[in-house]
Design a protein that fits this description.
The protein is mainly beta. It folds into 3 domains: 104 residues, Immunoglobulin-like (Sandwich), CATH 2.60.40; 99 residues, Immunoglobulin-like; 98 residues, Immunoglobulins (Immunoglobulin-like, Sandwich). It has 2 helices and 26 strands. The strands form 6 sheets. Strands 19, 21, 22, 23, 25 and 26 form a 6-stranded mixed beta sheet that branches. A 5-stranded mixed beta sheet has the order 2-9-8-4-6, with no helix packed on it. The longest helix has 30 residues.
Length: 370
């Protein structure tokens, strides 16, 4: 009951968060000396929700808003007036936010904080380049399509001579030359390239992009990726069971494939006991994920304390199998005894409190009638 009340209160308090929004999420501009501009943000709140507006961030002092509060949402215009010079090189984020302070319908206090962004890119002195490499996962035999975005965040145009190096277990296995790319100041260029994984082994790889754009000036970025194969491993499983019971049997599995597998199930055969075998329901396993398959083992036909089972995973046209050692626990069901013991303790405590209450009531002097 307490848990239900807790989640009810949580949902009630978060209802304002789920109903809050801001459009657009962000703007991005390049710094210009003495720049002046207006940016509109539309905030959405449920009817009757009052929100207080604010500005924060590195350049907040250069922003003014056309209003201070909103009720039920609305459009806010932020005016940005930049100075002639700025020493804050790089990307500077200005947050234009709406903090919910009151709901006229429920009386709830501040429960949501919605923010839009104005990004101001201030150039670094001279030449300055940043690289961002995207390296997606793939399966063996497929193309790995890399994407490199080259950001020129400096005050000069640059020529970037870049390449991608691919490593497996610390060993360089391939170089990909991206050539020389011209990037104008305060702009970015996206360059794509592919790696043919045919003949490569599945596993973990790492791609490193580097770009030279001047004497001794080099930018780098690194991104790991994986090559998969249609294979599911048995990670863990239930090892101990109570005698003469219908016991839950969990099998933890992990996918090493870069696509979902839709027809996975486990077949569990108890060695020497045909009647105890079972099959789990068919389910889906997402790429690179871990999942628990659930089944039930009837231990009433198992006579030995130590026994074996063959776990067979079925998926696609493949199987993964493993013979595992399992054990029957002989003795009391301590979990059941613990629950019963706890119940008796609580019952005894309540009985004691009732006795104490009755005794106190009897000892209280009766008031004389006038």
């Amino acid at each position: 009951m307490k848990r239900a009340i807790f989640f009810g209160v949580l949902i009630f308090l978060c209802s304002g968060v789920f109903g809050a929004s801001v459009t657009p999420g962000s703007y991005s501009i390049n710094f210009e000396s003495g720049y002046s501009g207006r940016f509109s943000f539309e905030f959405g709140f449920e009817k009757g929700v009052e929100a207080e507006l604010y500005v924060s961030g590195d350049l907040a002092e250069y922003v003014t808003l056309d209003k201070e509060r909103l009720v039920g949402g609305g459009v806010v215009v932020a005016t940005l007036n930049l100075p002639l010079e700025l020493n804050l090189s790089g990307e500077n984020k200005i947050r234009v936010g709406a903090l919910q302070i009151r709901d006229e319908n429920s009386g709830v206090g501040a429960v949501s904080d919605v923010r839009g962004l104005i990004k101001v890119n201030v150039p670094y002195p001279g030449k300055y380049v940043e690289l961002v490499l995207k390296a997606p996962n793939a399966n063996v035999g497929e193309l790995v399509n890399f994407s490199v975005e080259i950001f020129n965040r400096g005050e000069e145009d640059v020529k970037v001579d870049s390449k991608i190096q691919i490593f497996k277990e610390g060993n360089l296995i391939e170089n990909i030359d991206l050539g020389v790319i011209d990037v104008a100041l305060m702009t970015s260029v996206v360059v794509g390239s592919s790696f043919d994984s045919s003949g490569r082994s599945p596993g973990n790889y790492s791609a490193i992009v580097s770009g030279e754009y001047g004497s001794g000036l080099v930018a780098n970025d690194e991104n790991p990726f994986r090559l998969g194969e249609l294979f599911i491993s048995i990670v863990n499983y239930t090892r101990e069971f109570r005698a003469d019971k219908l016991e839950r049997f969990n099998i933890e599995v992990e996918s090493f494939y870069n696509n979902p597998i839709n027809d996975l199930y486990a077949e569990v055969n108890i060695v020497g006991v045909d009647d105890a075998s079972f099959i789990t329901p068919v389910g889906e396993l997402r790429e690179w994920r871990v999942k628990v398959l659930e089944g039930f083992l009837d231990t009433s036909g198992i006579d030995s304390e130590n026994f074996q089972a063959e776990i067979i995973l079925h998926y696609g046209n493949k199987t993964t199998s493993e013979v595992v050692d399992l054990r029957i626990i002989i003795g009391y069901d301590y979990v059941f005894l613990f629950v019963i013991g706890g119940f008796l303790v609580v019952l005894g405590f309540l009985g004691w409190r009732i006795v104490v209450f009755v005794k106190r009531t009897r000892k209280e002097p009766r008031k004389r009638k006038r």
